[in-house]
Write a structure and sequence with these properties.
The structure holds two protein chains of two kinds.
Chain A (H helix, E strand, L loop, with lengths): L8 H39 L11 H24 L3 H6 L1 H23 L5 H9 L14 H28 L11 H19 L7 H31 L17 H5 L2
Helix pairs in contact in A: 1-2, 1-4, 4-6, 6-7, 6-8, 7-8
Chain B lengths: L3 H39 L7 H30 L4 H4 L4 H16 L18 H8 L15 H24 L5 H17 L7 H7 L1 H17 L13
Classes of the chains: A mainly alpha, B mainly alpha.
Chain lengths: 263, 239
């Protein structure tokens, strides 16, 4: 049925070369994005072991995080190499976005634990360009949409951390006995509520890709805030009757050790 | 402490993008309106005998296509000020349609540039399309508006779909020669698509359908040759 040669063979051979180059690059970008996701997830896991707030990270945590910084740097360099110009950076933005979101999540979470402030988009962007092992690179790759979506996920990490800390705070003598709940938890809850309010106030035009991604993440973010609200409530209520050596283990939805393990 | 300024900055970026979106949408809507006029003129090719094709279809279509070019100029100017791949999905369909209509116009023997020889059955290359629309094609370095290879290939598949229909309608109009030309053309393009290593995307799905177009037109040629209706002087008469 098919003619062995067609007058258009040369033309299509040209297209094949271009498309092969595109598909191959897309594969490499997807691979590097997955590497970035996995390194960032491990970094977050290491950061979750922090037991302090607004202080430099303990050396045990920084030591555990070290190899993941290396892996993040390698993924950054692979991406910076592939997405060296604006055309490519945007062409593969969809493929690279999951990795960048996870990077934002890890960066902002580490920053929050150290400073108890939200790292800004500009700061994250700067950090990303400095993440490479081979000098600077990757400018213009991290979009504000990656940042917004990463910050949505940050609320989940703050929730996991806060819920874990309920156990620590709960067993320690309360710093503010009158209020019932430790100040630290109240601060985190206040920050999460502020973030929830600010994220919900973001007015993104309907029908855009960012709006649909935000739609997917909003419910999870709200649940995270509510889990911390419930944990705080539990501490307040039971804080008043807490005997020596009490551990939060029952009642509310997301406060016990058992619950934490399942995250 | 959460700095409200962070979110004010984000909202400003969102708003900026919304403005770009609105600006592009207005141009694309205009392009689409003009496109529909060109489309309705070219659709008459199915009901117009070859002898009247030039005056009834090609001349008015030329004017309509030239009208769309002003919108392409506008689009190119606005789009080139922003990252191409951030916004290209807003005009992809309209640009593919436009390229398809220019390909069809060219295949029917029309030419945009005055004075050039009409060449029925001719496939305009992607570079020629770029030349007609005065925009770059397959741009790989500069982040500017251009016609992408994928857009050209989508337009080419639309052309094959349209020609398969035209093969049957040519017979209805008493033109028994054109189906054999169309059959050869579709076979040649089909052979071209077969050397591409397409991944599982829309281009792959649509190109998988070309084999049905090949068969459709072969059936038309078969019906004609069975009844000895194909003019003898035609070298591709399939005898």
């Amino acid at each position: 049925m098919t003619a062995p040669t067609s007058p258009y063979t040369t033309m299509f051979e040209g297209f094949r070369a271009e498309l092969d180059e595109h598909y191959d690059r897309r594969e490499r970008v997807i691979k590097a994005s997955r590497d970035l996701t996995s390194a960032s997830k491990r970094l977050i896991f290491a950061l979750q072991r922090t037991r302090s707030l607004a202080r430099p990270l303990p050396s045990s945590v920084t030591k555990a995080a070290e190899p993941h910084h290396g892996a993040t740097g390698a993924a950054h360099d692979a991406l910076a190499l592939e997405l060296s110009n604006s055309l490519r950076a945007h062409r593969y933005a969809w493929q690279v976005s999951p990795g960048l979101q996870e990077f934002v999540e890890a960066a902002t979470f580490g920053h929050y634990l150290r400073h108890q402030t939200l790292m800004s988009f500009d700061e994250v962007q700067k950090l990303w360009t400095e993440t490479g092992e081979q000098g600077q690179g990757g400018e213009g790759m991290l979009q504000y949409s990656d940042y917004v979506l990463g910050v949505f996920d940050l609320t989940g990490e703050m929730m996991r951390w806060a819920v874990l800390m309920v156990a620590v705070w709960g067993s320690a003598p309360s710093r503010d006995a009158d209020e019932g709940a430790p100040e630290g938890l109240r601060d985190v809850l206040r920050d999460m509520r502020d973030m929830r309010a600010a994220l919900e106030a973001l007015d993104v035009p309907r029908g855009t890709p960012l709006a649909s991604e935000i739609g997917k993440k909003t419910d999870v973010m709200k649940q995270s805030v509510e889990k911390v609200e419930n944990a705080t409530y539990g501490l307040v209520v039971r804080g008043r009757e807490r005997p020596e050596g009490w551990m939060p283990d029952s009642g509310g939805s997301a406060e016990g050790r058992m619950e934490v393990d399942s995250y | 402490m959460i700095d409200r300024g962070i979110f004010e900055d984000l909202q400003a970026r969102v708003d900026e993008d919304a403005e770009v979106r609105d600006e592009i949408r207005v141009i694309v809507d205009t392009l689409e309106k003009k496109e529909k006029i060109a489309q309705s003129i070219l659709a008459k090719a199915h009901s117009t005998p070859l002898s009247q094709l030039s005056s009834q279809v090609l001349e008015p279509a030329k004017g309509a296509i030239q009208q769309t070019m002003a919108s392409v100029d506008d689009l190119s100017a606005v789009a080139s000020a922003h990252p191409y791949y951030k916004w290209n999905n807003m005009w992809q369909r309209q640009v593919q349609d436009l390229v398809f209509h220019i390909l069809l116009f060219g295949w029917l023997g029309g030419s945009i540039q005055d004075g050039s020889q009409p060449r029925p059955g001719y496939l305009l290359t992607i570079d020629e399309i770029g030349g007609i629309l005065k925009v770059p094609v397959n741009e790989k370095q500069k982040d500017t508006f251009h016609i992408a290879i994928e857009e050209y290939l989508h337009a080419l598949i639309s052309l094959l779909d349209e020609l398969a229909r035209l093969a049957r309608n040519s017979v209805t109009l008493g033109d028994y020669r054109r189906p054999t030309h169309i059959a050869q053309f579709i076979k040649d393009i089909h052979a071209g698509f077969q050397i591409l290593n397409l991944k599982n995307d829309s281009l792959r799905r649509r190109s998988d359908g070309i084999k049905y177009r090949v068969k459709e037109v072969e059936d038309v040629v078969y019906d004609l040759s069975l009844r000895n209706l194909i003019p003898r002087d035609d070298p591709t008469s399939g005898q």
